[in-house]
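Dissemination and training. As part of the outreach component of the grant, students in the summer workshop were shown how a complex can be specified as a set of sequence lines and then modelled as a single object. The example used during the hands-on session is reproduced here so that future cohorts can follow it. Participants entered these lines:
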Amino acid sequence: MVVFTEMGFYCPQADVYIDPLRKVSKAIVTHAHSDHAMPGMGHYLCESSGVEIMKLRLGKGISVQGLAYGETIFMNGVEIALFPAGHVPGSAQVRLSYLGEVWVISGDYKTLADGLSPAFESVRCHHFVTESTFGLPIFHWKPQDEVFRDMNAWWQENATNGLTSIMLGYSLGKAQRIIKYLDRGIGDVICHSAIADANVALESSGFTFGSWTEAGKAVVEFGSELLSRSLLICPPNALNGPLMQQIGKHSLANCSGWMAVRKSKNWGGVDKGFVLSDHADWSQLLEAVSASCAEHVYVTHGFTDVFSRYLRENLSINAEVVRVGHWNRTEE
Amino acid sequence: MKRFSLLIDALLLLRFEKDKQEVWADFIRSNQENEFYVGMVTALLKNECPKGVILSKNLKLLAMETVGIPNWLLDESKHFVGDMSETIALILSPLQSESKVDIGLNDVLTAMDDLRFRDSNEICDWIVSQWQNLSAREIQVFNKLVTGSFRSPFSPASFSDVEIHFEPIELKLVLLYAERGRVDGRNGFTEFTMGIGSASGWVTFSKVAVQLAELERASIEQWIIENTQEKFGPVHRLPAVQIFTIECRSIIESKRNKSGYRVTDATLISWENGASVEQVTTIDSLRAILPKR
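and obtained this result:
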């Protein structure tokens, strides 16, 4: 029912692509990260709470339809429903069902609830498409309470030493997850403009994550004392922008699953690393595959060869690697 | 192990020698009340590490058995991580118990000393039990220590620049044995075995090379010859009368030594001619100043 093409996952019966990589007429998008939601499609379908963020990223003028979790629509006899993927706000797994055969394309996901996005729901199916961004047994996430406790302690220490804290995090999902759990008793939360824009779109869709101030405003209005007790969240690609000069003395941290490994290229000169990811770790991937009860598992993104081999050889699961287009970058 | 692994981790993440030295200076400042601990860490950072108690390939097998993952998967993981000690540490992280027991660096070094000649099952059991009580970053360092592959994150020239920050440990010890050898082209005494006080009398504690001014040397050699109680080849047994001040960099627990301790870099400082044996350091007084766990 689903085929793997250069353009992305395609369902010929419904004539719809899932997360297509090139311009097509109908696209179902699992979430608004740039490697999944690409510009130029005729019509988009995404989870209802993701509509605003899709418009922010792809333009107000796109043709986009929202479908709430659990609701169904039919496309030429194919039943289509979306289920929470727990990855970022508005992220969904796509369930396609036709003549008794069920496929689930899970997009990016994590099974542990983060309190921001609706928690992952496992969906039974015959064919399960899974990511494997962190598909090695070296990746084991700690409970997020522990990570945020460490993060707030780091912030407090910087505030005491008169250093502004700067945290790198992608602007959709990771940033809001961090903002939600920062301890406002320490200081103010400042957001880079790209993150501020995403915040506004998500707040208008009903997501809440506490108080924050846009960076341009904070730099003008906050005194140096207030600024030194603040935490600025900034996308990794904005690190060398003019904002940094205005901030002054600071401590820089990165927040990503890759921080679990000490290879210097992941660290890129930051002072501190927090291991926090919106993707499934090794045991969550295994848990999701097992809970799907799927007879066929297709592995895409990340350590595809290793993860599919482990499923085949050690768990006797009928798993194979699928290469769709040229995904080689994952936004976290 | 926690403090030590935090230090090593911080050092490994820094690229510039100057930044590393700053971290090291901070470490010394915050541990200055504990000279013994700093001494032990200094020795490790100077690459004066004990020999391993397990081969790297056997440690890898032990990790595979413990977690139940196949060889190829561990190799793939190592390929990504770049370091086997770190790979094993990361793979073991789901094993860690909630109620961890704190394990000191000194405990690890002492146990290694003790286990070195035991059978491999006993060593493996010990390693697995330690794994369960250590965090991933501690295990990474622990794996390096037990395989004898720990390497200082400092380059040599510049580490010795910052090493001068703390005082050596001074002990008063009693001369128990003197060994003959060649001194400046003539026969003389080259090495003293020094003793420490214990509840059951004097026990040997440390050997030191004899470095004394010429007059003092002649005088002590004369005394040795006149007071020798027994000879074993070149070694003269002596009555516990002569006291010397000895300096060392660190004192480490060691079950293989009679006193229960070994010292690093022991140097003879001075002959306390005429001092009373009551001034000699005892094991009890040593214990009072040993590292806090």
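Chain B has a mean pLDDT of 89. Students were then asked to discuss how this feature might be tested experimentally.
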